[in-house]
Amino acid sequence: xxxQNCERCRALFHKKVKDICPACVQKEEEDFxxxxxxxxxxxxxxLITVSKETGVDLDVIYQFLQEGRIILSNSTQSNYPCKxxxxxxSTGALCIACEEKRNDVQQMLQTHATSEDEVAANVEAASxxxxxxxxKR
Length: 137
Ligand SMILES: [Zn+2]
Ligand SMILES: [Zn+2]
Prior knowledge:
Elements: E1 3-5, E2 12-14, H1 22-41, H2 47-54, H3 58-66, E3 80-81, E4 88-89, H4 96-111, H5 116-129
Antiparallel strand pairs: 1-2, 3-4
Helix pairs in contact: 1-2, 4-5
Bound molecules: zinc ion (2 copies).
Residues 6, 8-9, 11, 20-21, 23-24 line the site of one zinc ion.
Protein name: Flagellar protein
Organism: Caryophanon latum
């Protein structure tokens, strides 16, 4: 059995499925219900306000958004950081650039590139095809 620290409260617990302890799983569920209800009643709202009004940590709200558990309505003027690079996004877990990078990696794996030059060429080609996103190195 694996014992590890809870990612949220640092308590030791026997790891099962999640990286957080049972107490935090329950807390997370309560937070989720709070936010869900709040968003139901308030359509146009900033995430920072949601956090303040519900007392739920902003990072927890970001996590729900990245996991797709909360979907914001179009009128909600709120953005949250990309899981990978922190760029502001308003849907999904990753920004467009990181999404592309992920696709590029998948393509590389599929094409079985043998040399680093080939890999670089594939990245270059992939980013040009999709029109103008330059891969940062
Ligand atoms: Zn915990
Ligand atoms: Zn990103």
